[in-house]
Amino acid sequence: MRRILVLGSGFVATALVKHFCRRPDQSLTIASNILEDAKQLAAIESKQCTAVFLDVSDEPALAKLIREHDIVVSLIPWTLHPIVARLCVQEKVNMVTASYITPTLQEFDLPAKEANIAIFNEIGFDPGLDHLGAMSIIDDVLDHGGKVESFVSMAAGLPVVEHADNPLGYKFSWSPKGVLLAAVSPAQYLKDGEVVKVEGGRTYYGAKDMPADMFRGLRLEGVPNRDSIQFKEPYKLHDAHTILRGTMRFPGFATMIVCFSEMNLLSQDPCEELSKKGLKWNEFVASQMGCAVGDVKNVLKSRLEKVWGDDKRRLREAFRGLEWLEIMGDTIVPADKKQPIDALCAVLEEKLAFNDGERDLLLLHHEFIVDFDGRKERRTSKIIVSGDPYGMDGSISAMSRLVGVPCAVATEAVLDGAITRKGVFRPTEKEVYLPLLERLKETGISMIEDTEEL
User: Fold this and answer.
1) Are 232 and 365 contained in the same domain?
2) How many whole angstroms separate alpha carbon 61 and alpha carbon 83?
3) Which residues contact 152 (CB under 8 A, 6 or more apart)?
4) Domain Saccharopine dehydrogenase-like C-terminal, which positions (predicted)?
5) Following DSSP, what letter does each residue of 310-365 receive, concatenated?
6) Domain boundary residue among 83, 98, 120?
7) pTM of the entire structure?
8) pLDDT tier, 394 (very low <50, low <70, confident <90, very high otherwise)
């Protein structure tokens, strides 16, 4: 019996657990700091699954669990992965995550190799399936003597159009705070040979309309996602003059993120004001903006006009959204929050939750401009997947499926010996991504590819 330890019981764990339980030779321990959620996941197949309480900061308890298993799948926040990685190295147990490799995690590369274990990262949807789709085309171009001159990759996790029924056009299918942190992160990318840098908190100020033919019938806006240039080496994009990885949202999302930023609600600084009992939103917003309660609307309007000029449509959109969220009036700010971003996050999590019967939508679109000794092609690779309706027995969201299943498939590939690489890595090498593409195809997950001559 192969023993798999799953850390975390959040948004994407359902599909992962269901996939693992298809094989009777696998047993799962689902460890979470919310035991009830872990028990619900374990009930998917009670003969194979056990739920346990775990506080990851309790390192002796975590080390004991790791020691008792053959591999660890970490679905907890990325900031905690270094703790897990250190203990996996100590106990000589393989580890798989869907999160980005951070500099701190990269430091475990040599220790992991010395312990003869894999610390396999970035194998979910984005990052994950995006790597597989990109590298299969890039390597094909390079293997046939071509050059990749431009690479633009855009991804989105959204509600389906009919359920994008709020001012942000958005609902949470993964960590709410993760969405906000991504929105305020700095970004940089390569455009026509020039490095373009966007400072933290300003990414959505430059949201641009996506081409109408990218996903027929969908109007989308896009922004750069963190550091695109870091993928020049792992993606072998040595000849590319343009490298951009970005995020897409329906119109309205960027408007509201800019609004929150101008109201100083995305701050991660500790805020004493939040410790006041019965604090009203209009009081808190005024405090964050440095003005009187009665002046908030005019001050905010003035700030937004500096961003958008006299764009009355955007201004109406912004204030209508704030009214819908009820953060300009005398409603009470959620208690026990330490940072403004956490207070805002609590409101958004309640207001932007999926209701029963609603579905999510995942989109991924790669565009490559390639050159074969003067003959140019435009190649595309994309994924369009909608989830099951929320609230149905056995339903799986698109986000859970496209994060959980690739992560589970990668875990089994390590256990089966199909992937033998050691150290800290992502799926950008043939020895890693080719076995995964074949296995994912068997689950019904694959890319739609197209080529046209230019």
Assistant:
1) yes
2) 12
3) 242, 244, 246, 366, 367
4) 124-445
5) S-HHHHHHHHHHHHHHT-SSSPBPPSS--SHHHHHHHHHHHHTPPPTT--EEEEEE
6) 120
7) 0.91
8) confident
pLDDT tens track for 217-271:
899 999 999 999 999 999 999 999 999 999 999 999 999 999 999 999 999 999 9
**Paired tokens of 433:** 């991504």
pLDDT at position 176: 78
Instruction: Return the structure tokens found at 132.
Output: 């597989």
| Confidence band, pLDDT 50/70/90 cuts, at residue 386 | very high
**Which residue in the block uniquely carries the two structure tokens 């449509």?**
313
428 lies in some domain:
no
Neighbours of 31 (CB within 10 A): 26
**Does residue 246 sit in the same domain as residue 191?**
yes
Q: What is the pLDDT of residue 33?
A: 93
408 inside domain: no
Check: CB of residue 265 under 8 Å from CB of residue 174. no
Active-site residue list: 126
Which residue shows structure tokens 């995305």? 266
Most confident of 36-45, 330-339, 418-427: 418-427
For residues 143 and 234, state if they share a domain: yes
CATH code at 139? 3.30.360.10
Question: Could you tell me which residues come within 8 angstroms of residue 189 by beta carbon, excluding any fewer than 6 positions away?
Answer: 195, 196, 224, 228, 229, 243, 244, 245, 246
Judgement on whether residues 246 and 363 belong to the same structural domain of the protein = yes
- Paired with 147 in beta bridges are 371
Q: What φ, ψ does residue 255 adopt, rounded to 5°?
A: -55, -45
Alpha carbon 389 to chain centroid distance? 21
Largest separation between any pair of C-alpha atoms in the chain: 69
Q: Which residue, among 286, 451, 446, 313, has the nearest Cα to 378 in the 3D structure?
A: 451
- Whether residues 141 and 78 share a domain: the answer is no
Per-residue model confidence (pLDDT) at position 271: 92
Q: Is residue 224 left, alpha or beta, with left meaning phi > 0 and alpha meaning psi from -120 to 50? A: beta
Domain range for 244: 129-254+355-391+445-453
**How many whole angstroms separate alpha carbon 67 and alpha carbon 186?**
38
Phi and psi, residue 37, nearest 5°: -65, -40
Q: Is residue 46 very low, low, confident or very high in pLDDT (cuts 50, 70, 90)?
A: confident
The residue type at 54: L
pLDDT in the model for residue 392: 81
Interatomic CA distance for residues 277 and 283, integer angstroms: 12
Indicate whether 64 and 173 sit together in one domain: no
Is 430 within the bounds of a domain?
A: no
The CA distance from 168 to 258, in Å, is 12
**Closest Cα to residue 318, out of 432, 430, 204?**
204
Cα 451 from Cα 433, distance rounded (Å): 21
Q: What is the mean pLDDT of residues 300-326?
A: 94
